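ok so for the tutorial part 2 we go from a plain amino acid sequence to predicted structure tokens. step 1 is just haveing the sequence, like this:
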Amino acid sequence: MISRRLLRIKVIKTLYGHLQSTDRTLGQSEKELLHSIQKFYDLYHLLLTLVVDMADYSQSRMELGLQKHRPTVEELSPNTRFVDNAVVQLLRSNLELGHYNQSNRISWVDYPRLIKKFYENLVSREYFQEYLKADDCSFATDKKLILEFYTKELEDFEDLYTCLEDQSMFWMDDIEFIIGMVLKTVKTFKDSSDENAKLLPLYKEVEDETFATRLLRRSVLKREEYLELIGKFSSNWDVDRIAFMDTVIMLASISEIMEFPNIPIRVSFNEYIDLAKFYSTPNSASFINGVLDKAIAQLKIENKIEKQGRGLVGEESDIS
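step 2 — the prediction. this is what the tokens look like for a chain of 320 residues:
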């Protein structure tokens, strides 16, 4: 499931591009935002399919070995534990995964060398060799292997990043989040699971898509008002030190605080300060902290912030 944090990141990046462009319409930017969210879900399904393609590659190697004129003893009696891995078989037969991949044309078919390299790396790992030799052939050991693979082999694999970059510009920031989703999905599988096992939905809450599109839309439509407020409390800063991304982050933050009465001010405030640490300059977090603190205090004095729900009415003004 795509988190609110990742939705905020996608909104910020789309908003950045929108404000930098001279001819992009709000409708076009909204379509780009929704497309980037959908690509996130595509990558989730693609990564779930990875171990299936690796097992298929392993099977093809075994078949080639048996076709040799003089196969070795190992080739005559290959270890099929990985090919027969129960979790791999669940993913192979999963109706939801198969339907999604077929409908969206998602596969590794154009990247056989990557599949080969993943498999060769896996075969060289000690934990894989121990899996092949273990006496325990339970569902638990099969599941443990797949979890270890997704935990240890993807995040720092440069060839994977090159492949993802070739396919979609939206995937480079998604990989960590999606590995977490894949791990969570595999953990839900049980010995009793079948082809109807449920995968994770795209959105955790039904209103998450509305949250993202509304945040982008309100940030664009109210930008003059909110940018004027930002300018008022950043006037003492050297203009050359203010990164454009800082302005975008503050614009999205104020929009969220103003437009979403059910989200606590502190949550919005802290989320965007954290995002500034990753997506802007080293000094951005402290700068944004100071400007937002003053801007929010001013908005409260003018009674422009309305919050609803238990614990949200009358939030304290000191949030720094």
